[in-house]
Amino acid sequence: QVQLVESGGGMVQAGGSLRLACAASERTFSSYTMGWFRQAPGKEREFVAAITWSGGSTYYADSVKGRFTISRDNAKNTVYLQMNSLKPEDTAIYYCNAAVRTTDWRPLFASWGQGTQVTVSS
Hints:
Elements: E1 4-7, E2 10-13, E3 18-24, E4 34-39, E5 46-51, E6 58-60, E7 68-73, E8 78-83, E9 92-101, E10 105-107, E11 116-121
Parallel strand pairs: 2-11
Antiparallel strand pairs: 1-3, 3-8, 4-5, 4-9, 5-6, 7-8, 9-10, 9-11
């Protein structure tokens, strides 16, 4: 199974930016639609953004649309999440996973990486 390692989180003030990265262990990564998910304290993990294997299509949760941008570099087995205009409600642990959409976006792999903490102060 593909192993995923997230990085790039940190603490920023509201309005600031961060760029997250997710490195995959296998070249088969390039065949998957990849997604970012996040989990805030006391809340369920939720979908943030997804990108098809070619990078030709992207999808976003309404809460981040216009502020976040997902991209990928298949040569580096890495997917990115550029987060701008951050808000305190974006505070969460961010995870990546392969993603599938039925009625909504869900993770494909049962196991998760360690995630990366994003904290936005007001």
